[in-house]
Amino acid sequence: MCVHIAGDAALVAGVRRTLRGVLTDWGVTELVEDMELIGSELVGNAVRHGSGLGVGVLLAAQDNLVLLEVSDGTAGQPAERHADNEDEDGRGLLIVRALAKDYGWRANDRGGTTIWATLPLPTRRAGS
User: Fold this and answer.
1) Are strands 102-107 and 2-5 parallel, antiparallel or unpaired?
2) In the chain, N or C terminus with fewer CB closer than 10 Å?
3) Residue 38 and residue 44: Cα distance in Å, rounded?
4) What residues does 105 pair with on adjacent strands?
5) Nearest-10 Cα torsion for 13, 16, 18, 22
6) Torsion angles phi and psi, residue 118, rounded to 5
């Protein structure tokens, strides 16, 4: 699944629905809640802090992992913040780090940033 969306915060809910639909179609419903939260945080950050060139979203299954990539047009390394208890935001990448098997970032070919996160595909037992 690959989607390109305009930089609009209202579209985060649409990305969540799309992630849920694709993961359900793939038969890995046990990943839906974590991937929706990871996707919401990454897409929300891209919309909030991106350059207005839109946001690209890629979801792929590879090497026993589900990979989510979110790209925007803003260059630079995303930074984890350490929010105070009273802060209403600033915990997104900490949430991603806590839920994902792995995550990171790279410069993309649009002069911006792609941040990615993976979740392990569940191991299926014979007969399940």
Assistant:
1) unpaired
2) C
3) 10
4) 115
5) -170
6) -125, 150
For residue 125, what pLDDT is reported? Answer: 44
Identify the CA nearest to 28 among candidates 78, 52, 57, 64: 64
Tokens encoding 100: 């994902």
Q: Strand 65-72 vs strand 2-5: parallel, antiparallel, or unpaired?
A: unpaired
**How many residues does the structure list for the chain?**
128
The residue assigned the tokens 């930089």 is 7
The tokens describing 48, both together, are 């909030």
Give residue for tokens 């060139």: 53
Write the pLDDT tens digit of every residue in 56-99.
889 999 889 999 999 888 887 776 666 555 655 556 788 899 99
What SS3 class is residue 18? helix
Place of tokens 């792609």: 114
